[in-house]
Automatic annotation (TrEMBL):
Any single Pfam family the record assigns to this protein: Trp_Tyr_perm
Lipid bilayer topology: Multi-pass membrane protein
Keywords assigned by UniProt, alphabetized: Amino-acid transport, Cell inner membrane, Cell membrane, Membrane, Symport, Transmembrane, Transmembrane helix, Transport
Species of provenance: Caviibacterium pharyngocola
The protein, known as: Serine transporter
UniProt GO molecular function: amino acid transmembrane transporter activity; symporter activity
Cell compartment(s), UniProt: Cell inner membrane
Residues spanning the membrane: 12-34, 40-58, 91-111, 131-147, 159-176, 196-216, 237-260, 287-311, 332-356, 362-380, 392-412
InterPro entries associated with the record: Amino_acid_transport_2, Hydroxy_aa_transpt
One cellular component term from this protein's GO annotations in UniProt: plasma membrane
Reaction(s) catalysed (UniProt annotation): L-serine(in) + H(+)(in) = L-serine(out) + H(+)(out)
Coiled-coil boundaries: none
Primary location: membrane
Upper taxonomic lineage: Bacteria, Pseudomonadati, Pseudomonadota, Gammaproteobacteria, Pasteurellales
Length: 413
C-alpha cells in the first residue's frame, strides 16, 4: 500500500471513533464547563487550540506503541514486558491497572447515585433498595462487556448518538443567552499562564480515552492485518475521535461559559452541582434538569465500557505475569475478571464512600505518564519505534505531558 493512499471512513472505524468518544466523555463533562471556565474565556481559547493536537498525538503514539510488538495481537501489558523487561512490565501493568480501576469504581458508584437521584427527584418515587439497584445496574453493564465485540460496539454507538445530540442541542439552545461579560475578564500574564497550567490536566482527562486504546489497536489489527494499513486506519480513527471531542465537547463548554458570568461560575463551583443543574435553576427550566441525569447516565455508561476494557486488560495481564505457565484458559479468566469487578464495584456502590475522587486524583499522574511519556520514551529507546524519531510532535507531546503531570501533582498538594 502506498504512503499517499488516503483512508476512507468505514462503519468499523466510525464505531470505534464513537466508542473512544464514549470512553472519554464521562459524567465529568457536566462539571467541565465550571472547572475549565473558572479561569476566564481567553485561557480557554488557548486550551481549545492545544487540546485537539494533544489528544490526537498522544493517543496515536500510545496506539503505535501497542502495535510495535513483534507478536501480533499483543495487548499493552504484553508490549510493555516485551520492550522493557519482565519486572518493568509487572510494575507498569500494576500502575496501569491502579490508574484505571478507581475510575471504574467511581462509575459503578456514580451510575447508582444518578439513577437513584432520578427516581427520587424527577419521578417523585421512594428511593429503591441501594444494594438491589446497584447490583442490577452494575451486572447489566458488565454483561454487555461479556458479549461479542461487535455487539458491545453497537450498544456503545446507541448510547453515544443521543449523548452527542443532546450536548449539541443544549449548546445551540444556550446561544440566545450568551453575554460578553466573560470576554472583558482579562487576566494578568502570570494569571493567564497559571490558569493554563492548572487547567490543562482538566481538559486532558476530559478527553482521555487511553484505557480503550490497547483494545482498540488490537481490534484494528485483527480487522486490517497489515501493520501499515492498521496504523493508518488507527491514526485516521483517532483523528476522528479527537475532532468529534473537540467540536462537541468544547462547543458545549464555550456555550455554557458564555451563558454565565464569572460570578455565576464561582457560585456553581461552590455549590458543587453539575452545569445542567445550575442552568436549570438559573432559567427555571425543568427540561434541562431532566436532561442532566439522562446525560450523566449516557456518559457514565459509555465511559464505563472503555474503562472496563483497560481495567480488565490490566488485571488479566497482572494475573498472567504472576503465573509463569502460559497455559491459561482466557475465556475462564474473562469470566473470573468479570466476577471480581462485579463484586468489588457492587461493594463500593453499596458503601458509597466519599473518598473515591481523591483516589482517582492519585491515578492522574500515572495515566498522564503512560499516555504521554511512555510512548515518547519508547520512540527514543525501542528499535521498532525509531522510525518515528525526529518529529516535532514528539517534543510537543513530551512537553505537554510534563506540564499535565506537574499540574496534577501540584493540584494534589
Amino acid at each position: 500500500m502506498s504512503k499517499n493512499t488516503s483512508i476512507k471512513w468505514n462503519k468499523f472505524d466510525l464505531l470505534w471513533a464513537l466508542n473512544l468518544f464514549g470512553t472519554a466523555v464521562g459524567a465529568g463533562v457536566l462539571f467541565l464547563p465550571i472547572n475549565a471556565g473558572m479561569g476566564g474565556f481567553w485561557p480557554l481559547v488557548v486550551m481549545a487550540i492545544l487540546v485537539g493536537p494533544m489528544t490526537f498525538l498522544a493517543h496515536r503514539a500510545l496506539s503505535r506503541f501497542v502495535l510495535s510488538s513483534s507478536v501480533p495481537g499483543s495487548d499493552i501489558t504484553d508490549v510493555v514486558e516485551e520492550h522493557f523487561g519482565k519486572n518493568a512490565g509487572k510494575l507498569i501493568t500494576l500502575l496501569y491497572f491502579f490508574a484505571i480501576f478507581p475510575i471504574l469504581l467511581i462509575y459503578g458508584n456514580g451510575i447508582t447515585n444518578t439513577v437513584d437521584s432520578f427516581i427520587v427527584n424527577q419521578l417523585g418515587l421512594a428511593s429503591p433498595n441501594r444494594a438491589l439497584l446497584s447490583f442490577v445496574l452494575i451486572a447489566s453493564l458488565i454483561s454487555v462487556m461479556l458479549m461479542d465485540e461487535k455487539i458491545m460496539l453497537k450498544i456503545t454507538e446507541l448510547l453515544v448518538y443521543p449523548l452527542v445530540l443532546i450536548l449539541f442541542a443544549l449548546s445551540i439552545y444556550l446561544i440566545p443567552e450568551w453575554n460578553t461579560s466573560m470576554l472583558h475578564e482579562m487576566p494578568t500574564a502570570q494569571g493567564f499562564i497559571t490558569t493554563l497550567w492548572i487547567t490543562i490536566p482538566v481538559l486532558v482527562f476530559s478527553f482521555n480515552h487511553s484505557p480503550a486504546i490497547s483494545s482498540f489497536s488490537q481490534s484494528q489489527q485483527r480487522q486490517y492485518k497489515d501493520l501499515e494499513l492498521t496504523e493508518k486506519h488507527a491514526g485516521h480513527t483517532l483523528k476522528g475521535t479527537a475532532t468529534i471531542l473537540l467540536v462537541f465537547v468544547m462547543f458545549f463548554v464555550f456555550s455554557c461559559v458564555l451563558t454565565l458570568t464569572p460570578q455565576e461560575l464561582t457560585l456553581a463551583k461552590s455549590q458543587n452541582i453539575s452545569i445542567l443543574s445550575f442552568l436549570a435553576n438559573k432559567f427555571d427550566n425543568p427540561y434541562i434538569s431532566y436532561l442532566g441525569p439522562f446525560v450523566a447516565f449516557l456518559a457514565i455508561t459509555s465511559s464505563f465500557f472503555g474503562h472496563y476494557l483497560g481495567a480488565k486488560e490490566g488485571l488479566e495481564g497482572l494475573f498472567i505475569k504472576m503465573r509463569d505457565d502460559k497455559k491459561i484458559n482466557r475465556k475462564k479468566l474473562n469470566y473470573l475478571t468479570a466476577l471480581f469487578f462485579l463484586f468489588t464495584l457492587w461493594g463500593v456502590a453499596i458503601i458509597n464512600p466519599s473518598i473515591l475522587g481523591l483516589i482517582e486524583s492519585f491515578g492522574g499522574p500515572i495515566i498522564a505518564a503512560i499516555l504521554f511519556i511512555m510512548p515518547m520514551y519508547a520512540i527514543r529507546k525501542i528499535p521498532a519505534m525509531q522510525r518515528y524519531q525526529g518529529q516535532f510532535s514528539n517534543v510537543f507531546v513530551t512537553v505537554m505531558g510534563l506540564i499535565a503531570i506537574s499540574a496534577v501533582i501540584y493540584g494534589l498538594f
